Amino acid sequence: MSDNNDRINKKMKLAEGLLLRADLLKKIEHLQNRIRPVLVVSDDKLPQEDPDKLIAQLRNAIQDLETLVIRINKTNNETLVEGEGVLMEALAKRDSLKMLSERLRRIRLDAQFNNSGDSNLKNTISIKKLQKEMDETGRAFRKIDSKIQEINWLTELKD
């Protein structure tokens, strides 16, 4: 087991688990980048690092990530969010609100850009209605995101 194993299996808040997951993903990428240059060397040279040790570290980091992701997913599937169902559902709703907000913003920009300067052109959508929907979507996103952030710092990661 890796030296991170104690950190992976300890009691922690969901937010800590999410930060640790990000760290593990960076570590895995870093190890992959360290492995690449030591895979092949000239006959008369030794690699700067032992590729077998690096691959073992990579294996351990990926196993740690698996354990942590299982704990995060279990927590997301078992933690209730007021008015939203379980945390997993709230996360999906937040992601869809973010996507909708980004797409609506892009549509507004496209409509404004394509109608700049030519008096013979008119918009086929109401920018005012679009802006109203953008505002509502933004408010809904911020509301659910605040709930999620609060839960992340208050909820113990499941075993």
How would you sum up this structure, described in words?
It is a single chain. The chain is an all-alpha fold. It has 2 domains: 5-78, no CATH class; 84-154. The chain is built from 5 helices and 2 strands. Strands 1-2 form a two-stranded antiparallel sheet. Strand 1 (80-81) and strand 2 form a beta hairpin. The longest helix is centred in the middle third of the chain and has 28 residues, at 51-78. It is flat, with a radius of gyration of 24 Å. It starts with a helix and ends in a 5-residue tail after the last helix. The model has no long low-confidence stretch (mean pLDDT 92). It comes from Aequorivita xiaoshiensis.
List keywords for this structure.
2 domains, 3% strand, mainly alpha, flat, 159 residues, 2 strands, two-stranded antiparallel sheet
Quick structural overview:
This protein is mainly alpha-helical.
Helix and strand composition category: mainly alpha
What is the number of domains?
2
Number of helices: 5
User: Termini, distance in Å?
Assistant: 17 Å
- Residue share in helix: 55-70%
Main sheet makeup: 2 strands, antiparallel
Tell me the strand percentage band: under 5%
Integer-rounded radius of gyration: 24 Å
Task: Give the topology string: H per helix, E per strand.
Answer: HHHEEHH
